[in-house]
Amino acid sequence: MRHGFAVAAFALLLAACEGLIGGEELMRVPLQATPGGYAPVRVQLKPEMNPVAITLHADFGWGRSEEAGQWNAYRAELRRDGQVIASREVQINSPEKPNVAASAPPTALQQPLLHVDVPAGGEYEVSITATRPVVVTLNSPELAVRIKVPRAQQ
User: Fold this and answer.
1) Of the N and C termini of the chain, which has fewer Cβ atoms inside 10 Å?
2) Per-residue pLDDT reduced to its tens digit, 101-119
3) What one-character DSSP code corresponds to residue 51?
4) Distance between CA atoms of 141 and 136, rounded to whole angstroms?
């Protein structure tokens, strides 16, 4: 019975990933921090690559008790020729626990940003903009773009 529960829990976890597991990685680039988030990243995309998944990867700072209970808020946008193709707001919570003297090292962040079908081939721009002051430390942030990602089951 315990094994059956573990299998069911794993299946739910996979379903919650909204199809972001799979496909092939087109690119992964380090992000350049700016006062308002991160510098935009340009990527060549075409409809044959659909669906496309864009994810933020980073490592959390460790031992930052002052960040406990804090979060960052961002807006991710995919644009082509100045027109917004897709956008989404995300929140990234600190893994630090309040009033805990020594917590375990936090895990790495893999935050899904966008899961989209691009309408036409060409150069696209991905931007990640902070919608409030950044208070949670993200080390070594990278943007990953995956193509031909399986669609979520409806």
Assistant:
1) C
2) 665 666 789 999 999 999 9
3) S
4) 12
Q: Which of 21, 33, 41 is nearest to 143 (CA)?
A: 41
Q: Which two tokens stand for residue 50?
A: 């659909």
CATH of 2-147, one of 2.60.120, 1.10.287, 1.10.620, 1.20.81: 2.60.120
Distance (Å, whole) CA 94 – CA 129: 18
Classify burial at 20, counting beta carbons within 10 Å of its beta carbon; exposed 0-12, middle 13-18, buried 19 or more. Answer: buried
| Burial status of residue 4 (CB atoms within 10 A of its CB: 0-12, 13-18, 19 or more) | exposed
Question: Is pTM beyond 0.85 here?
Answer: no
- Which residue from 136, 130, 135, 144 is spatially nearest to 36, judged by alpha carbons? 130
